[in-house]
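Data deposition worksheet. Section B asks for the primary sequence of the deposited chain exactly as it was used as input, without tags or linkers unless they were present during the calculation. Section C holds the resulting structure in token form. Section D is free text for depositor observations; keep each observation to a single sentence. Incomplete worksheets are returned to the depositor.
Section A, Depositor: J.P.
Section B:
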Amino acid sequence: MLMQSTIQTRADPKLLMRWLFAVAALVILMVAVGGITRLTESGLSITQWKPVSGIIPPLSQADWQAEFDHYKQIPEYQQLNRAMTLAGFKAIFFWEYVHRLLGRVIGLAFAVPLVWFALRRQIPVGYGWRLAALFALGGLQGAIGWWMVASGLSVRTDVSHVRLAVHLMTALVLLAGIVWTALDLRALAAFPLARAARLRLAAGGALALLLVQIMFGAFTAGLDAGYAFSSWPLMGDALFPADAPMMMPAWRNALDNPVVVQFIHRWFAFAAAAGLGLLAWRAAATGARRSATAIAVLVTLQIALGIATLLSGVAIGIAVAHQVNSALLVMAAVMAAHALGRRQHGA
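Section C:
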């Protein structure tokens, strides 16, 4: 009993909160770099997974040529990029390397402080398992990233859009878990007897709608469906093009048909916006007006960026802003859901 009291006394929830928010910022940066990597078609430039030695980039002309030779063996080069020079390869290699390097930085930024806090017994009671689970999810995210890349190394000329969606959604679930835990720690710092917030049904529904919309956004990116029609609100001269080729069985269209996927992503956005609007309204009623305002602003901006992405022909800057804004929207929605969960939980 004395040991538990000592642990609680030495714990510093505010310090852990700041650490987790810093990691969350790195995750958002990772989402941005991942978007650039996808849009520049750089994701298949590194054809091997070396978690430790891969941190060292090519340092000599021979090293660069060896990497380029590996790339020449995959379908993307053989079918699409046979005219690519070594200089062109270096350009796409850069973004994939930065993406993987940042993943390692995030892993270290989480693991090293976590071990330090654990050894010094500075983790509040009940939070050790949660932090360990978040670290494990981060490790799984790295494995999912390679699983995604591997899908484009043998038969396809790009990565599987389904695996791309799993990769992005796992990153955002990780972001949500980090932010939620940081908010619990902030409440604990203010009131040592504060209980962890609970995810209420309405808030969970709004977050689920947002994740579904993000999933279709990833499908849109992975299928290059954003290029199918660059007009809005009509797709060409109709709400839905009558001559669009369809797949059988019918359910495959929502998964693999670029025209249908773009259509769903266009209009499901408003269902997600309605759910998030309800969450913002309920959060404002509990006093969380900043989170509610952030949701309202970010939802409006997200829809505007989505439309601008289409109208611009998927300009990289606008498309990346659209993806980063989705991560910020997840963060704002989690903060509103947490405020609602604390208030209704009696915290």
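Section D:
Residues 161 and 313 are 19 Å apart (CA to CA).
The chain has twelve helices and no strands.
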